[in-house]
Structure formats: structure tokens, C-alpha cells
Specification:
Layout lengths: L11 H23 L5 E5 L5 E3 L1 E5 L2 E17 L4 E6 L6 E2 L4 E6 L1 H61 L5 H59 L1 E3 L4 E6 L6 E2 L4 E18 L11 E6 L2 E15 L2 E7 L14 E7 L4 E7 L3 H5 L3 E5 L5 E6 L1 E5 L3 E6 L6 E3 L11 E5 L1
Parallel strand pairs: 1-22
Antiparallel strand pairs: 2-21, 3-16, 4-11, 4-15, 5-7, 5-10, 6-9, 7-8, 9-11, 11-14, 12-13, 12-15, 13-14, 16-20, 17-18, 17-21, 18-22, 19-20
Helix pairs in contact: 2-3
């Protein structure tokens, strides 16, 4: 008779082994499929910079370096060359308008003045002589006209008498006609003499005007030459400081050569060099500020020089009402915040080393418990030396890591350790 075989049950040891393997499979699946697969890096919190994203006023500006210069500089270029014979002042002297600085000597110019004076004297004498001769001729013609007037009166009287006699047949017709012809001839001679007098007067007036014009021209030339002689003494054209002077006693100075310069030190301006990248965004009347003696001072762009040299262009900035800070000096360097736009409300994040690695495309955002920071894409806008304008990716109150990311590589999460 057959014997019924009973199925053997799993021993406890085997059951424990199977359950252990299953748990291990679940752990592996959770770790590699459902768990956090991001790469991590442990960092110490004291070694990073944490900044809070805030909303506030944003002013876009750039830092520029400027040099303090006199508000006005006058260059002493000689108008007439010569040899230096006298120096009245030295470099650094403070001058008033008209103060003599240096005197030159030019023998050729002196001879030219003597020659021009002689020409003027000669022409003036010729004018006087011509006027005298014209006046004598005018008087002779007037005297002739008076004689003719008298002759006409006499012949008119004789003509009237003989006409009456002829009308009464007391004289011959021939005698009457002779009297009449003499009267007519006297009148015609007077008219001709008067016309000659008029023409002669017009000619004399024209001649005198020409001579007077020549005299005036010669006198003007003499005046210019004398002015050139006076210009041999170089004088201060403005009130200021003589900051340079070139020329020693006995030295020959050519016409147009620069002898030095005078600076108006009653006020100053600032000449600043700016990167050509901003040339389209810089224009007159833009404002800037700088700190001097622990106080903030304003500047305003007056002139923009469009020429670009070595990748930079220059601007002249003036103080309000030309009122420069007390104590500022020529040649001093100032660091200016140049405004590029109007102030406006914006979401802001502090500048930091992260930007050099990310280009502003992403940043590590810290969780509320400040135990880890996760990489998040962002979009930044304008900037100034303190902050970036945040356009997208962050919210007010969030905290981010703004220090350098150079050592993080492709890490996606930072585990923050105290």
C-alpha cells in the first residue's frame, strides 16, 4: 500500500534569508530609481557667503575714475617771435588779468614800426598839401565866378540901355546886337565856369577821400604793428596760477611757440575716462557722485568727447554752480559713481563670485532650514557694483549662495554643515 508523502515546509532560516534579499532589492530600487540622484557636496557654512533676495530701489551706475582739472586753462602762445629779454614772474605765481609775464625783443618789428610811421607822416603831408591846393583852386574859381557875375550885371545894364535906345531909333541895330551878344556870351561863360567849378569840386572830393582812406589804412597798419610790439610783452589773459613757463633770458622764441599755461583755480572740473561699451548710454547732463573728506559730492556731465582711444572715451564733469569742495586740488584722483538711468523698484541680489562661474544663469538657493542649497536657473538684468537686478527665478526673502563656485564643478546640491 502506497504511503502519502507530505510536503516539507520552509524552514525559518530560509524564510529569513528570502525576506532579507527582498528588503535589499527594495532598498536598491529606492536608492537608484526613486531616491535623490543629484550630486552633493558638503560645505561649511562659515566658508560661503549667504545673501537674502530683497526688493528695493535699484540705480544702475558704473564706477569711473576721474582727475581733477582747472575749470579753464589758457595756453600762452606768442603772437610775434623774438628774443627773451626780461622775465617778470616764475612758475607757480598767482596772476591777475594783465600782469606781465615775460618780455621779448624783435628789432625787425621795431624797424617796421619806424617805416610805417614815416609812411603815415608822408601820406598825411601829401593829404594836407592836396587839400591846400584844392582849396586854392576852389577859391580862384569862386573869385572867377564873382567876376563873371559882375561882368554879367554890367553887360545886362548896357544891354537894357541900348535896347531902349534902339527901340527909339537912337542907335544903330549893329550897336544894339553887339551889346546883346556880349550879354549872352557873359552868361554862357559864367555857366561854363560854374560847371567847371562843380566838376572840379567833385574831383577834389574824390581825391581827398582816396587820400584819407590811404592815410587811415596806413594808420591802421601802424596800429597793428604797434600792437604786435606790445604783444612782445606777454601778459596774463585770465586770473589764475602760472603752472608752466618756458623761456629763459636770451632764448629765441618762434612765432606761435607755446610759452606755458595759466590755470583758473577759482573752480575745477573732473575729466573722466569711460569704457567704450557705455558710449551710447552716456550723454550731457547725466549725474555722478563721489566721496571726498567723508562727504558725498555731485557732478554733472557737461561735455562728452566722442573720440575713442585705447577702448575708452572721455567726459568733462562739472560741480553744481561751479562750487568745488573745499580742499580739492588739481591732479587729484576721484572715484565716481556714474548714473546710467533713473532709480526704480526691483528684486535685487548681492553681487558675488558666483557670477564668474554661472554667468548669471543659475544660483544655489538655500532651503528654509538652511541645511542644503539646490541649484536653480535664474535670469538677471541690469547691475551696479553692489547688486544685480533679478528678472526671474527668485522670490523676495529667499536666501542664496553668492560666493565663488569655482570649486563646485557640476555639483547640484550643497549640504550645509555648521
Amino acid at each position: 500500500m502506497d504511503k502519502k508523502i507530505e510536503k516539507k515546509k520552509w524552514p525559518p532560516k530560509k524564510i529569513a534569508s528570502v525576506l532579507g534579499g527582498g528588503v535589499l532589492v527594495v532598498i536598491i530600487l529606492y536608492t537608484f530609481v526613486l531616491g535623490d540622484q543629484s550630486t552633493k557636496l558638503n560645505v561649511q557654512k562659515e566658508r560661503i557667503t549667504i545673501s537674502e533676495v530683497k526688493r528695493g530701489p535699484f540705480q544702475e551706475f558704473i564706477p569711473v575714475t576721474g582727475t581733477v582739472q582747472p575749470i579753464e586753462t589758457f595756453y600762452l602762445d606768442v603772437q610775434q617771435g623774438g628774443r627773451v629779454v626780461e622775465k617778470y614772474v616764475e612758475e607757480g605765481a598767482f596772476l591777475e588779468i594783465g600782469d606781465p609775464i615775460i618780455r621779448l625783443e624783435n628789432p625787425d618789428l621795431t624797424l617796421n614800426i619806424i617805416y610805417n610811421e614815416a609812411q603815415v607822416f608822408q601820406q598825411v603831408n601829401a593829404l594836407r598839401s592836396t587839400k591846400f591846393n584844392f582849396e586854392q583852386n576852389r577859391l580862384r574859381l569862386k573869385s572867377s565866378l564873382l567876376d563873371l557875375e559882375l561882368d554879367i550885371m554890367e553887360k545886362h545894364r548896357d544891354y537894357k540901355i541900348k535896347k531902349e535906345l534902339f527901340d527909339k531909333d537912337l542907335i544903330s541895330k549893329t550897336e544894339f546886337e553887339i551889346s546883346r551878344d556880349q550879354y549872352d556870351f557873359a552868361k554862357r561863360r559864367k555857366n561854363l565856369t560854374y560847371e567847371n567849378y562843380i566838376q572840379d569840386s567833385l574831383f577834389q572830393a574824390s581825391q581827398i577821400n582816396n587820400l584819407e582812406s590811404q592815410v587811415a589804412q596806413l594808420q591802421e597798419n601802424l596800429k597793428v604793428t604797434k600792437q604786435q610790439l606790445e604783444n612782445l610783452t606777454v601778459r596774463a589773459p585770465i586770473k589764475g596760477q602760472l603752472t608752466s613757463l618756458n623761456g629763459e633770458i636770451g632764448e629765441s622764441i618762434a612765432q606761435g611757440q607755446n610759452l606755458g599755461q595759466i590755470d583758473n583755480i577759482e573752480s575745477y572740473k573732473v575729466r573722466a575716462a569711460i569704457d567704450e561699451h557705455y558710449i551710447a548710454r552716456v550723454s550731457p547732463n547725466q549725474n555722478g557722485t563721489f566721496t571726498f573728506a567723508n562727504n558725498s559730492h555731485a557732478l554733472n556731465i557737461k561735455t562728452v568727447f566722442p573720440e575713442v582711444t585705447n577702448g575708452r572715451f572721455e567726459v568733462d564733469m562739472f560741480f553744481p554752480s561751479n562750487n568745488a569742495p573745499s580742499g580739492i586740488r588739481r591732479g587729484q584722483t576721484v572715484h565716481i559713481k556714474l548714473e546710467l538711468g533713473e532709480s526704480q523698484e526691483a528684486l535685487l541680489v548681492d553681487r558675488g563670485g558666483f557670477y564668474q562661474t554661472t554667468g548669471g544663469q543659475w544660483i544655489f538657493v538655500i532651503n528654509e532650514s538652511e541645511t542644503e542649497a539646490v541649484r536653480r536657473p535664474i535670469r538677471l538684468g541690469s547691475q551696479n557694483p553692489q547688486v544685480f537686478e533679478v528678472l526671474d527665478g527668485l522670490q523676495p526673502g529667499e536666501k542664496v549662495v553668492t560666493s565663488s563656485y569655482d570649486n563646485y564643478g557640476d555639483i547640484e546640491k550643497l549640504v550645509l554643515k555648521n
